[in-house]
Amino acid sequence: MLELISLSKKYGNFKAVNNLNLVVKEGEFFSLLGPSGCGKTTTLRLIAGFEQPTSGKIQLNGKDITELPPFQRNINTVFQHFALFPHLSAFNNIAFGLRIKKKKENEIKQQVTEMLKFVSLEGKSDSLPNQLSGGQQQRVALARALINQPSILLLDEPLGALDEKLRDQMQVELSNLQKKVGITFIFVTHNQEEALTMADRIAVMKDGTIDHLGTPDEIYLKPSSTFTASFIGNTNLFKCVIETKTENSLMLRTENNFVFEKFDASGDNIVGKNLTISLRPEQIRLSRNNPHKNENGLKGIIKNEIFYGDMSIFWVTVLENIRVAVSMQNYVASENVSKPFQEGEEVFICWDKKSGHLITE
Amino acid sequence: MDTSSQNNLLYRSSKYYLLLPSYFWVIVFFILPLILLFTISFASKQTYGGYEINFHLDNYARAIDPIYLKIAIRTFFYSITTTIFCFLLGYPIAYYISFTDGFKKVVLMFLILLPFWTNFLIRVYSWNTILGSYGLINSSLISLGVIDTPFDLLNNYISVNIGLLYGELPYMVLPIVASIDRIDRSILEASSDLGASKYYTFFNVTLPLSMPGIISGVVFVLIPTLGQFVIPDLLGGNDSFMIGNIITNQFIVVRDWPFGSTLSVYMMGFVMIPLYLYLRYSKLSLNSVIS
Ligand SMILES: Nc1ncnc2c1ncn2[C@@H]1O[C@H](COP(=O)(O)OP(=O)(O)OP(=O)(O)O)[C@@H](O)[C@H]1O
Ligand SMILES: [Mg+2]
């Protein structure tokens, strides 16, 4: 178990990490997600020991490791650009940690060979890093770290340097591998899809602190802030105020005086409170007819369609100048596909009164 | 003929025209003098410094005299010790410079380069005021009461070695700084991350990866030192001549150009050995020298 307690790191007056509290459980695939410059790498460097925190503590399995130098922490890192030793073969790169521990040569040979097989690089043992492809270098970097059986493996955007195809493939390989070895992974990325598909839990970071921590579902469906809501996937955000309230429903008024109903039985909302509702593009549908009884509806005009192949995003202007994104699956049923809706068409946008997530800030 | 192939032809021939100045430079200033030197080495000396080209090997036979051999060995010895001392002193300096940053690094680099703005002869000569019997070192030691009679530091092998070390040190430091600068710092972090102490990282990562700089530094120091004559002239005694002194002597004092040329040809042959090794190794160094 890794605990970061009120961890801060200042560069001059700039707080790269700002009073960060975090507990990572043993064997967990944990992801630090956030926009560029939010302090992900700095947090990782503090955990690895390359940087000393300005204040705060780091505990590993109950032991304070804040002051320990990197080489005395049972933590290994896969660097963003792999940082393989350019003068050593794949074999010797992987053997590096074992050589430091003064393992016997035949033991090293056996373990490294096993590790090479584990990451499917059997034939590449004598290749130098610059003779390997990006994906192969990535796996050498992984093997080099894993062979030391660390308590925690830190990965700083390890897939950032790979092309999209290889990245998809490595995502699957990485999460399978993590399950197999059972080592805690802390995985840094600014790619939300990567975090959603691989991680058990995600910490969304903003300005050096954690904005929202939760499972991928929670973060996507019930973000605690507008920042997380808009950072993870696309969403439509509307500021509203609670107009009236019944036992299991609220009437909300937007800034431009559109009033709609939202079912909410939580009971912790009072009349007059300011809220933001987040409606995902896939929670809204387009219709030429009036909305159903359980739906809210708004008349609008389709301004653009953005075609993604399997689906399209329609940008619809409602209430004169509010732009709403609506996604729609593209069913290619016959050879001559006709688009379901045309740009410039007048439509209703409809959403279920149960849909939408309320954010209080 | 269509325009594109015309352009292509124009382009291809113009490439060679553009190279002409550099060819001219190399031929006039390097190849021709070398041919001249080589030719004169087979000539005979005439009175009053002239020579007659009559192609014989007498000069080459004469040069294998033990007197010259002894000086050649001394030259070689000086060059080796200078190179070793330059490395032992230069590597830590280079390491230190490379791992400082910001303004301090600029200042340190500037200090390394600063002496080049003063004439070399003057800089070497000024060592007299440091090493002499009444120089800085001896007078301070005497006034401190450490010694009564001054050390003999000048006009012997000590002063020549100090002078050579002083003169050649920057040529060792600069390429090593460049090669350490080129090492990605995350590689050093990776080493520490994998459990390596500072020493382990230095001997297994930093030192091997700075090998190209070390090899360049060794060549930049070794070869010029083999041809050095100013420092033994200014700081040496009559038992610290180097082969460079003999050669300048032949040309300027004795006015025996043919024999001077012969000695130069021998010298060049000898210099070719480290140069050859350098070219071999500098190609290999990045890949396989270490592993
Ligand atoms: N050595 C340093 N000196 C000064 N400022 C720094 C230093 N390292 C990082 N910072 C600053 O700290 C902030 C956080 O940097 P960090 O590298 O942790 O970002 P990140 O979240 O990893 O971003 P990215 O996704 O772009 O890698 C940035 O604004 C950066 O400019
Ligand atoms: Mg980063």
Summary tags:
heterodimer; A: 361 residues; alpha+beta; Rossmann fold; OB fold (Dihydrolipoamide Acetyltransferase, E2P); 8 helices; 37% strand; B: mainly alpha; MetI-like fold; 2 strands; 75% helix; 1% strand; disordered C terminus; binds adenosine-5'-triphosphate; binds magnesium ion
How is this structure best described in words?
The complex is a heterodimer of chains A (361) and B (291). With 361 residues, chain A is an alpha+beta fold. Chain A folds into two domains: 2-231, Rossmann fold (3-Layer(aba) Sandwich); 236-359, OB fold (Dihydrolipoamide Acetyltransferase, E2P) (Beta Barrel), CATH 2.40.50.140. Chain A has eight helices and 20 strands. Chain A has helices at 40-48, 90-100, 105-118, 134-146, 164-181, 192-198, 216-221, 226-231, and strands at 2-11, 14-24, 29-33, 55-60, 63-64, 75-78, 152-156, 184-189, 201-206, 209-214, 236-246, 249-254, 259-263, 274-279, 284-287, 295-307, 311-318, 322-329, 346-352, 357-359. In chain A, a hairpin with a 2-residue loop joins strand 11 and strand 12 (249-254). Chain B is mostly helical. Chain B has a single domain (72-290), classed as Orthogonal Bundle (MetI-like fold). In chain B, 75% of the residues lie in helices and 1% in strands. Chain B is built from 14 helices and two strands; from the N terminus they run H-E-E-H-H-H-H-H-H-H-H-H-H-H-H-H. In chain B, strands 1-2 form a two-stranded antiparallel sheet. The longest helix of chain B is centred in the N-terminal third of the chain and has 38 residues, at 3-40. Chain B is globular and about 70 Å long. The interface between A and B is medium-sized, with 27 and 20 residues. Adenosine-5'-triphosphate is lined by residues 11, 16, 34, 36-42, 190 of chain A.
